[in-house]
Amino acid sequence: NAGVMQNPRHLVRRRGQEARLRCSPMKGHSHVYWYRQLPEEGLKFMVYLQKENIIDESGMPKERFSAEFPKEGPSILRIQQVVRGDSAAYFCASSPLSGVYNEQFFGPGTRLTVL
Amino acid sequence: DAKTTQPPSMDCAEGRAANLPCNHSTISGNEYVYWYRQIHSQGPQYIIHGLKNNETNEMASLIITEDRKSSTLILPHATLRDTAVYYCIVRVAYDAGNMLTFGGGTRLMVKP
Fold it and tell me: Fewer CB near the terminus (10 Å): N or C of chain B?
């Protein structure tokens, strides 16, 4: 059973460009979470999605950031008009629809560098 | 979620037990104690969780005090590969929508 997959693993963008980060949850998992880790800081929750629904986006910046989890395909975290402060590691986690403890399983992350 | 307090760093000799403490004095009755670790900027890895009884799995043991205000994660025979930041998190277990709130964690350095 493959784990959570994220791509690309490294992404370099210039200021003002768009960044698209992809996350494929573990097989059978229908809950996806995105976290951001700024350099030398802890992980911060951004958004929680189920298929075709955003459940909790309380950690998402109000502008330039959006997320989706379509019926088919991976979850996408999109950052428009990137700025240097967006440089960070972005981690995706998934958990199953049902399950007693709903622990979250993390992917390897995408490291975004904004020049 | 209740907040947790962990020492920022600890050292441990290779082959010895690593005991990582965590205080969670405001934990609620329906909140579990979870432990994750992050090895060198990889994605966090789930280790173990518990409610009030001690728990053990292939990775570690979790000892929770009777009043549930603190706990200790035990790595019985630490190896160099256990060098990581260890996060103690309290959360409601049965709620899939409950995000993980990471604090500063404990940076464990296992030395030869």
Answer: C
- Local structure of B79: helix, strand or coil: coil
Distance CA A79, CA B74 (A): 40
Q: Which residues, 6 or more positions from A13, have their beta carbon under 8 angstroms from its beta carbon?
A: A19, A82, A112, A113, A114, A115
Assess B57–A contact: CB distance below 8 Å, yes or no.
Answer: no
Block residue for tokens 């000799």 = B13
The DSSP call for residue B29 is T
Q: How many contacts, defined by CB atoms under 8 Å, are there between A and B?
A: 63
Residue A42 touches partner B, C-beta closer than 8 Å: yes
The token pair at B36 is: 């994750």
CA nearest to B23, candidates B81, B56, B72, B92: B72
Q: Distance from CA of residue B9 to its chain's centroid? A: 13
How far apart, in whole angstroms, are the C-alpha atoms of residue A98 and residue B95?
10
